[in-house]
Amino acid sequence: MILSNTVFAQYPVVSLYENGVPGIKESAINTKENVVIGKDGITRINNIMDPSLTVIKPKKKTSDASVVICPGGGYGILAWDHEGTSIGEWFASKGVTAFVLKYRLPQYDLYENAEIRPLQDAQQAFRYIRKNAQKYGLDTEKVGIMGFSAGGHLAASVSTHFDEQIGEITDASISVKPNFAILLYPVISFSDKYAHLGSRKNLLNDNPTIEKIEHYSNELQVKNGTPPTFLVHAFDDGVLVNNSLAYFKALKAKGIPSEMHIYDRGGHGFSMKKSNKGPVASWPARLEEWLRLNNWMK
């Protein structure tokens, strides 16, 4: 593995907090971001001290919609290019502006109240995009969110906890609610029955209370106003397909228009990689159809 202090920047990067990042422990101020490029070619990041948005603009913008992309990694790392920039490039190739979110992970040695920091950063991303929509030529009512695995849990949390702006920085004048959501093999439930226990432990530490488990089990938090959602999962995924099924059932119960694709095989973490993936590799085409149907992509 190769260690590096920086990710090679191809695109503009915007810091989420102009006046200092809230919640960093004094003992962690000098911590350096950790970037690991694995033998599989995937860049993995943690120790995120400056949460940011990487802006991937289309060469030919055909839509005024935009999407915030949350890479996965079990709330332990971010699979930065695999489930982040490569996805942003796909959206840009289709004429849609993408913002790849480098969100803080719940590292209790670095941040006070670490469990809220991923959601705080995601909500701040929506404030930034809506505040600067004119600059980018975007519609404030067409801002979506997309997440993979634990990033899917974060995206679902943004989709269900939008009525509470959390943390030290809030702005009631700017909505943090997505207009649509895209969840790829998401962690949804923190229940003992369906949870990806590694993600739950990383976010909530050991022995979380029943109240905390239920609060972060997003199938229990779906409400009127939760956005239309597109879900993709494989039956043989180690993150149990029951996560997507439970969320889809909750969306249906609230009458929220949504679409779900369950594939027989595909495992976990397939993202855009198509080699030896079989039918699961067709999910981007299905997503494109859904986005066009709803006028988020032209």
Descriptive notes:
The strands form two sheets. An eight-stranded mixed β-sheet has the order 2-5-8-6-9-10-11-12, with helices on both faces. The chain has eight helices and twelve strands. The radius of gyration is 18 Å and the shape is globular. The longest helix is centred in the middle third of the chain and has 15 residues. The chain has one domain: Rossmann fold (3-Layer(aba) Sandwich). The N terminus is likely disordered. By secondary structure, the protein is α/β, with parallel strands linked by helices.
Strand order of the largest sheet: 2-5-8-6-9-10-11-12
Query: What does the main sheet amount to?
Result: 8 strands, mixed
> Would you tell me the overall average pLDDT?
95
Please write the CATH class name. Alpha Beta
The whole-angstrom Rg is 18 Å
Number of strands: 12
Question: What distance separates the N and C termini?
Answer: 41 Å
CATH homologous superfamily descriptor: Alpha/Beta hydrolase fold, catalytic domain
Q: Given the C-alpha coordinates, what overall shape results?
A: globular
Strand content: 15-25%
Named CATH architecture: 3-Layer(aba) Sandwich
Helix content: 25-40%
Number of helices: 8
Short account of what is shown:
This protein is an alpha/beta fold.
Index terms:
8 helices; about 300 residues; Rossmann fold; globular; disordered N terminus; eight-stranded mixed β-sheet; four-stranded antiparallel β-sheet; alpha/beta
Itemize the secondary structure elements and their pairings.
Layout: E1 2-4, E2 13-15, E3 34-37, E4 43-46, E5 52-56, E6 66-70, E7 78-79, H1 81-93, E8 97-102, H2 117-131, H3 133-136, E9 143-148, H4 150-160, E10 180-184, H5 197-204, H6 210-215, E11 229-234, H7 242-253, E12 258-263, H8 283-293
Parallel strand pairs: 6-8, 6-9, 9-10, 10-11, 11-12
Antiparallel strand pairs: 1-3, 2-5, 3-4, 4-7, 5-8
